[in-house]
Structures are given as structure tokens and as C-alpha cells.
Amino acid sequence: MKEKSYKVLFLGRIFVGLIFAYSGFIKLMEPVENFRGAMAAYDVIPSAVIPLLSQVIPWAEFIFGIFLVIGYLPRISAGVLAGLSWSFVILVLITRIATGSLPVNCGCFGEGSLIHLKPLQVVFLDIFNTLIGVKLALTKDHPFGLSSVLK
Length: 151
Hints:
The structure is a single chain. By secondary structure, this protein is mainly α. The protein contains 6 helices and no strands. The chain has one domain (3-140). It is 72% helix and 0% strand.
């Protein structure tokens, strides 16, 4: 792979990793009830799984986001984060079809965040994150990361 391609993938890795690390960190610093309420507002997530998801998702975002930034297990981290991004896109589409509307707050960055996006804006961000994440997950070599140093 050309050096320019590595640089673009490196920047994509940092971008996606920072977005998720920040998102997870903000949710972890707030009461878990905030994220539970945001998830419940979609009206299509079964209420029985919301408590579990509200505990797991922020930690997954934070841990795999940090891993992606530092380049530790970049393929696995990118795959997990691409899966989270794509699942949000699907959630928004299902919610729109099932209810005819979307919640005002997507819940993606918590209530105390500096970033406030509408659900449709986050859909475009998550499509972008999914594409980058899939590319990173399929790329064997990540030369600017901890995994390459540890080899």
C-alpha cells in the first residue's frame, strides 16, 4: 500500500477512534439513566435490553475508541466500531419507519457533550464511520500504531 494511503487510513483511524472515545467517555461520566432515556425514546428497542445496552455500549465505545486511536488491535476495534455505527443507522431507519418520527436527541454524545447533532446528522456521520471502520478492519497493516510496534 502506498504511503499516502497509510496516512489517510491513519487519519481515519484517529477520527473514528476519537469520536467513539469521546462519545463513550461523556456517557460514562453521566448518570446511566440519561442514556437509558435516550435509548427508550426510540420506541423500537425492547425495554428488557435497554439496561444491559446502556451499560455495555458506553464502555465498548470508550475502550475500542481508545484502542483505535493508539492502534492497538486496530482491525478488531475498527470492526466493532463499524458495527456500532451501522447499528445506529439501522436503528434510525427502523424508528423512522415504525413511528414516523425520530427523537430530538439521538443520545449519541450524552447530554453534557460539547457536540450536539440531530439524528439525521449523526446518521451521515455514522455512515462515514462505518465506511472508514470497514476499510480499517479489512486492512492488514496499520504501521502507525501500537500493534505494529508490538510485532
